[in-house]
Write a structure and sequence with these properties.
The chain has 185 residues and is mainly beta. The chain is built from 2 helices and 10 strands; from the N terminus they run ααββββββββββ. The longest helix has 9 residues. The N and C termini lie far apart (44 Å).
Length: 185
Amino acid sequence: MRWFRCSFAAVLFSVAATTPAFADVARPAAAVPATFAPLQFLLGNWSGAGTSDAGAGKGYDTFALDLDGFAVVRRSHAEYPGKDGKAPVTYDALMVVYKDPAAAQLRADYFDNGHVIRYTLQSGTDARVARFVSDAAPGTPTFRLTYTGSDDGKSLDVTFEIAPPGSTTFSVLAAGRDTRIPAKE
């Protein structure tokens, strides 16, 4: 279970100082298709910091429309300094959000250092919250990744949680805050 805490927690948090690797990934502003309206508050470049059992981390994320508006792609990079004599840890992750035509809902596939999580976006009444819940599978934990945007659109609270197999009680594995990186004029 420790590898879940370290690897998935690491990709949640961001740092502006090293954004050039992803800053150019986001395409110029375009009309957001109605399909992705619930995720509009996420689009853009973000930097931030957070904590998990790997320690305090920092990194960056980019959420961008891709594939001619048929997907939202999140690219993430996180760095954790060495803790308790251990070497520093760096994580990169990719998440692709798309409309599942069979289920008529938004789905997301998350990938990092060998892990894959398949999520469904849970609809809510708050336009500033995107909650992704992993597919249930016998004998495996359930994950919940929640983004909550601030009223002014300048920050995101990010929470990554886990529920043991067969349970619906989640506990926080990692949490942090991202700050929007202003678009270059």
